[in-house]
Amino acid sequence: MNRLREHIEAITPLTDEEFDYVKTFFTLKKVRKNQFLIHEGDEVKYEFLALDGIYKVFYIDENGKEHILQFAKKNWWMSDYIGFFKQNNSKMFIECLKDGEVVSLTLQGRNQLAADLHKMDHFFRIKLTNGYIALQQRIILLLSSTPQQRYEEFVRLYPDLISEVPKKYVAEYLGVSRETLSRLYSNTNK
């Protein structure tokens, strides 16, 4: 749980007593490659903080096409947030791409922590704001940029993921074919 404390304290310091209380709301879980944290149709009970490993958050459309919304790695939060905050069943999947560990937190636990500790309310507000900003930036990039620009931005923002995530998933995330991704990679590395 030291990694959880370090993650929280990057935003707000906690006393030992406060952290002892905070950690009672989180559950540690080891996750193996190809294991799912959430399946479409599941009740969304948790949001997850990746302590290590790599994960993909995706949905499958009515034609069977997979669409990746997010990759998650160390210190990234993930869930089907529509299902989590509205307490609905999931429309998303979360799959582990590289063995790791996560901690999970229920909505009730999140709300209780925010109500009991102003520091945690502040922490969750900062995390939610940063996530919202990242989502808007991703949407703007998808709507207004070329595949080359999307690829270059992905490499700039996530240089380690380009080598750790299978290329077919990077292509899906960028909204391009595997062949287009190969051309983009070749053009950038000339």
TrEMBL record:
Coiled-coil stretches: none
Taxonomic superkingdom: Bacteria
Cyclic nucleotide-binding domain residues: 29-113
Keywords: Kinase, Transferase
GO molecular function: kinase activity
One of the Pfam families matching this protein, by short name: cNMP_binding
Name listed for the protein in its UniProt record: cAMP-binding domain of CRP or a regulatory subunit of cAMP-dependent protein kinases
